[in-house]
Amino acid sequence: MLKLLALLQDGRFHSGEALGASLGVSRAAVWKQLQELELASGLSVHKVRGRGYCLETPLVLLDAEKLLSNPGGWRPQVLESVDSTNAAAFRYLESGEKPPFFVVAERQTAGRGRRGRQWISPFAENIYYSLLLRVEGGAGQLDGLSLVVGLAVLAAIREAGVAGVGLKWPNDLLVAGRKVAGILLEISGDPADVCHVVVGVGINVNMRREDSIDQPWTSLRNEVGEVIDRNALINSLSAHLDHYLALHRQQGFQALCADWEAAHLWQGKEVRLSAGAQFIDGRVLGVDFRGALRLLVDGEERQYSGGELSLRLRDDS
Length: 317
Prior knowledge:
28% of the residues lie in helices and 27% in strands. It is of the alpha+beta class. The protein has 3 domains: 2-55, Orthogonal Bundle (Arc Repressor Mutant, subunit A), CATH 1.10.10; 64-261, Bira Bifunctional Protein, Domain 2 (BirA Bifunctional Protein, domain 2, 2-Layer Sandwich), CATH 3.30.930; 266-313, SH3 type barrels (Roll). The strands form 3 sheets. Strands 3-4-5-9-8-7-6 form a 7-stranded mixed beta sheet, with helices on both faces. The protein has a 5-stranded antiparallel beta sheet with strand order 13-12-11-10-14. Strand 11 and strand 12 form a beta hairpin. The longest helix has 22 residues, at 230-251.
C-alpha cells in the first residue's frame, strides 16, 4: 500500500497504466490496490476517466532517511500502523533496542491520551511520536518534564507558522481555545533508581475533518492553510526536544518555569480543577519548580499535581 501511496502522495492525477508500470502490475491490479487502499487507510481517491487517479488531498509520507539527521542522534523507528507509539517504544526496549530512540507511525489503532482517553489517529495526517529515554538518579529527574516537553512542542508548532499557539496545564497545546497537540508521559522501571520514560507527543498536522473528536480542535494545516511536511516537523520537534531536555537535565525545571508561565494561556484566569468527583475553583498563579499547578483558592495558595487532574476555565472567567 505504501508504494502506491508514495506514487499518489503529490495529489496529482496518475494514469492506471503509469501506476501499473511503476508497480510492475496490471491496470486491473492497480484498481484492486486502490480499493484496498481506500478501505485500509480511510483516504479518498478520485477516479476520473481519461485522467486517472489522484488523492483527494496531497500528503507527505514518513521517511526514515529524512529523520536520521536529528541533533540528538536518536534512532527513528518508522511504522505504517501500530496500536500505540508509546506501547511500541516499550516493546522495542524489551526487545533490546538501546535508548534514546523514537517511534513514529502513519496511524495508531489504539492511541491514548491522558486519563485513558482515546487519541484519534487517522492515517498519514498527523504526528504520533514517542521518544524513549533512560533516566538515572530517581524520579526527581522527571520533575516538570511534561511541561518542558510542552515548551519543545510549542517551539516546533510556532516554527511551522502557527503564532497563536499556547500551553494549557498540564499537557495540552491550544490555538484559540482549540486543541492542536497533547503530551503523554509513561514510566517503566524503578522510579527510585533507574527507569525509562516514554515522551509521547500527538500533533494535529494535516487533519481537516474528524467527526469523532468530542472537543474543539484544530490542526496546523487549518491554521496556516497549506499541507505541512510531517518529516520536517518531526525533525523540528526532535531538535527542540533535544535543546529543552538538555536544559532540564542541567538546570532542572526551575530554569524554565518563567518561560512556561509566559506561554500559559490560562495564567491569571479563573479555573475549575477536577479530581475525580471533587472540584476546586481558583485563580491560576502559575506553576512551581516541580511543575505543580499553583492556584489561589479562598485567598490561600495551594499546589496540585497528578495525572488524574483536569483543568477547565470557569464560566465567569
